[in-house]
Amino acid sequence: MPTHVHKRVPKSPACGRRGPPRPSRALLGPRAQRSHPHLGLGLRSLPLRGTRASLPRPRASPSLAPPLAAPCPAHGPHPIPTSLRPSLLPASPTAPGPRPPGLALSPAKPGARRAPPRLLLSRGSLDAGSAWSARQRRGGAVWRLWRAAGRGRGEVAGAVLVTGGDSCRAVPMLRFPTCFPSFRVVGEKQLPQEIIFLVWSPKRDLIALANTAGEVLLHRLASFHRVWSFPPNENTGKEVTCLAWRPDGKLLAFALADTKKIVLCDVEKPESLHSFSVEAPVSCMHWMEVTVESSVLTSFYNAEDESNLLLPKLPTLPKNYSNTSKIFSEENSDEIIKLLGDVRLNILVLGGSSGFIELYAYGMFKIARVTGIAGTCLALCLSSDLKSLSVVTEVSTSGASEVSYFQLETNLLYSFLPEVTRMARKFTHISALLQYINLSLTCMCEAWEEILMQMDSRLTKFVQEKNTTTSVQDEFMHLLLWGKASAELQTLLMNQLTVKGLKKLGQSIESSYSSIQKLVISHLQSGSESLLYHLSELKGMASWKQKYEPLGLDAAGIEDAITAVGSFILKANELLQVIDSSMKNFKAFFRWLYVAMLRMTEDHVLPELNKMTQKDITFVAEFLTEHFNEAPDLYNRKGKYFNVERVGQYLKDEDDDLVSPPNTEGNQWYDFLQNSSYLKESPLLFPYYPRKSLHFVKRRMENIIDQCLQKPADVIGKSMNQAICIPLYRDTRSEDSTRRLFKFPFLWNNKTSNLHYLLFTILEDSLYKMCILRRHTDISQSVSNGLIAIKFGSFTYATTEKVRRRLDEQCSAIPTRTMHFEKHWRLLESMKAQYVAGNGFRKVSCVLSSNLRHVRVFEMDIDDEWELDESSDEEEEAGNKPVKIKEEVLSESETENQQAGAAAFAPEIVIKVEKLDPELDS
User: Fold this and answer.
1) Residue 739 in 3-state DSSP?
2) Is residue 626 assigned to a domain?
3) How does pLDDT run across 850-909, given as a tens digit for each residue?
4) Which of 258, 259, 272 is nearest to 216 (CA)?
5) What is the pLDDT of residue 504?
6) Range(s) of the domain holding residue 135
7) Number of separate domains in the chain
8) Which of 6, 408, 750, 873 can pair with 389 through a Cys bridge, CB separation 3.0 to 4.6 Å?
9) Residue that is last in its domain, among 178, 196, 221
10) Is 477 inside any structural domain?
11) Residue 885 is assigned to a structural domain of this protein
12) 53 contacts: CB under 8 Å, gap ≥ 6
């Protein structure tokens, strides 16, 4: 409740009222009038009588209010009440101790219509015995603020006396707490699993978490509500090592150590959009967007991709398969565009052990592999202008580890940025199409059922158990010609295969073959033709040697990739022929055998089933001759004598030859090619592999494409030369023994000024000492290095000219000046912090407790609730500028005295600043 001045003052005879005129309102500005959870603001009228003040709703237009300290019409300004005079002290701008922000009034210009006084309210406490002044930028008027105290009653909390030299009025205020919370808690959550990573989205109020169980979680800022959860599985992995957001916030990348995979996940749904394997476990990631602008890039960004006009849209994959990626199975979804996102180039940088560093365009295809860096990557950052790459590594030797900073030149990427962008988009299209072909082939494997192998296993068992010397082929031929079966064959058909089982087997084969045939025609061939188109365009780019030869594009390697895709298309067509032939023969065979089994059981046979033409009998005879021959060699290889089902062998992921390759005897075109020495070795014809499976040809195609596109990554990676190497410090303590609040070392890139910043701690010196290293992204502009060491109120400056010595072996101090920031700290209640993750875009921070399960979210920018909107109609007419509290910069001699005085007040953070090296700003 508000507290006011209770002492009654003498009556004014001229005015016929007690004391000074009652103010109609206290103006706090549009923002400050809003209610705040800490102060309960929203006051409109503050009476000076002994009664308590009422708090009606604020009005929307403060400019229509009368002045707060309006003088009496008859006698002018009222005098200061005698009961309050003893508590007034003169203002002293240099008074010792911290100067909390107080209240400030903006007087109207002489001769202008009197504007209502404006109160500037911010955090802080006004104590009796102290006075504070705020200077107006223009006009020179000084307004003093005092804390009021009643006669004989001591200090009166909440009453502030305001004077402008010509009038003095007491303004009742609400009670101020001694220290306002600087950051507001907006969410808190107790999680079931221990959290190991927290990363905020760069564009949305979302935060990605990874726990020890291998889950990747997405939470929203509001009440820390969980959006979705990506559980661990065998295909991806269970040990998450790092997280990274795409710059537009639409994709989330996370690395897994157990499978050495990188997974790109959609922010809308917990679905894996793309994944690829790497050579080493990834320890850190950085996803950046290129900000370089040029006329060539602008025209490329605005131009429509020709592939969207010339190629048909890829058919969506069926949804009834477990391994199908949702990105290729949703209706009305442009899967390639969804993967690419924005046309502007963005690069995902990966770092791991043994100097493993790779760059992936659009987070999908590798465009560079960096070599020559030793140790495990702790942090890395690629500049947005593509001029340099900063890396922090750790090399462990004999129980200690040495941390070093490297800066590598990436001028090749910067110089050929338009070409790199075009090439990267083609690489990404090719990578997405390879994924589409893989998923199509996976769906085909799922469509093929194990039930189709029952005929082979039953016939093999029949051969092992039969006592006759006749072959299985002879047994079935005897049944076809004479309509009678031996006792052994009848037992096989009636007891093991059964009429019901035969009918189910025939339906399964027909359904399975139809699904596989549809997948080959609609999806496998469509994806292969699109892949052939993009490789042909890439070959045309490689022919422009002036532009693309420095990047490592090789036309001969791309030609080999095109040939491999052609061979894959030929093998897919061969599979279609086998499916068509098998469906025709199986249909005739099962129809004949079904009627024969019905006659054995003396069941009624439908008239339409009895109709068998001579052509049908020929199909059955050919089927028995081709598929029912006993093969002892096959039994030694596969454990069976027969291979009746011929489609499954094409879908086996094996290097062995086909069990039953297609019969090419009598094929006139095949004989013509084999007999022609010119056409046999012609590069215009795609090679044919008749004894290999579809999976084998697909793997061969992928390997050739990878080798073709690997050369640019090697060339660009070798062009990244090490320009700077700075040994930072030596750490003899283990990682587990040191609890760190932030992830150090930490690298980031300032896109505006093109600077690299490195934040790290020298652990041997102090856990509470942080160092900031600044480097230009352009190596040629770096004349000297700037280093700032921060140690709770003191900055230490050092140079890194002697790069052979570690930074922890160098120390030199420079004079500093102190500034006080009272609102940039927050005392955590009932919580021991372990890790902090901040979001500069949303201005929020997430604090993880030491038990790794308790999360608390703070809003960092609640100052808008307290800052005044200094502009008003009256001030604009009078030409006055808003009054702002100016932070006084103390002299060097006063630093120690101010720090001593600050200890008597509420806790605060004291930060010292220093002038940076001017050469770094060049």
Assistant:
1) coil
2) yes
3) 888 889 888 877 554 444 343 334 444 444 333 333 333 333 333 333 333 333 333 333
4) 272
5) 82
6) 1-178
7) 2
8) 408
9) 178
10) yes
11) no
12) 2, 4, 43, 45, 46, 47, 172
